[in-house]
Amino acid sequence: MTSNVMDFLTHFLHLRAAPIDLAVAQEASVRATQRLKTPDALVVATGLVTQVGLLVANDDHWKTIGDTGVRVLYLEDHLPFVLKRPGSSAAAPAHLASSTVSA
Fold it and tell me: What pLDDT, on a 0 to 100 scale, did the predictor assign at position 91?
């Protein structure tokens, strides 16, 4: 990881990196029932073990995942602008259309 990423992960207010330990690995069995890919299962399992209030995501695929026991907050739904990702067909809501930002 670059030093910028590590600085962000270690100094951002209310953000704590959690280790993938035995409890997380065991909880990741949710992967089998939800058909999650391993990285997503580890994210959900870490959230369950550490009892997070919200999983903050900006990935459309989280909208297609069923109930995992962790609430997902979609960052894009709470920004005063829209992040337009390459290949995204999502149109900006009318009240935000003039403030679209390319990522």
Answer: 52
